[in-house]
Amino acid sequence: MAASTPEGRLEEMGLTLPDVAKPVAAYVPALRSESYVYTSGQLPLRDGELLHTGKVGADVTVEQAQQCAQQCTLNALAAVRAAVGDLSAVTRVVKVVAFVASAPDFTGQPQVANGASELLGQVFGDAGQHARSAVGVAVLPLGAPVEVEMIVEVG
Fold it and tell me: What is the dihedral of CA 113, 116, 122, 123, to 10 degrees?
């Protein structure tokens, strides 16, 4: 695949999009509405298993949490691709929200979310620059340390 495509850039980085993660409750992984695709929150699942569990700042390091955010983003991109057929259809990453299961004194949520944001910049270039929220939470589904959702615009 050519490096001029999002999938090609992922391949150059040694990354591949996984199969779309099965929902853990009653929802769909992604939904297209006109020119936008909204993903559901994606967990750091790889081959059906969480990369890490626990709270960032206690059980999980910032570096491990960044890896989790990257995996969440790969899972979200897989859901986007399933909704539109090809990541080349993405014209802009609009918004990313990263939820971080945080130890009570942990305040590095933005650094964790960079695991998602930096990947999107590498994959989509300027179109990967986005608005973002990084939110500390008490707990996430299945004990995951990170969950990421996004909104993308497609052409």
Answer: -160
Residue boundaries of the structural domains of the chain: 6-154
- Where residue 143 falls (left for φ over 0; alpha for ψ -120 to 50; beta otherwise) is left
CB neighbour list of residue 37: distance below 8 Å, 6 or more residues apart: 30, 31, 80, 83, 84, 151, 152, 154
pLDDT score at 1: 46
pTM score, two decimals? 0.96
Distance CA 8, CA 136 (A): 33
Residue 114 pLDDT exceeds 70? yes
For the cut 90, the answer to whether the pLDDT of residue 66 exceeds it is yes
Which is the CATH superfamily of the domain at 6-154?
RutC-like (3.30.1330.40)
H or E segment to which residue 90 belongs: strand 90-101
Structure letter (DSSP) for residue 42: B
Convert the pLDDT of each residue in 21-36 to its tens digit. Answer: 888 789 999 999 999 9
Neighbours of 85 (CB within 10 A): 10
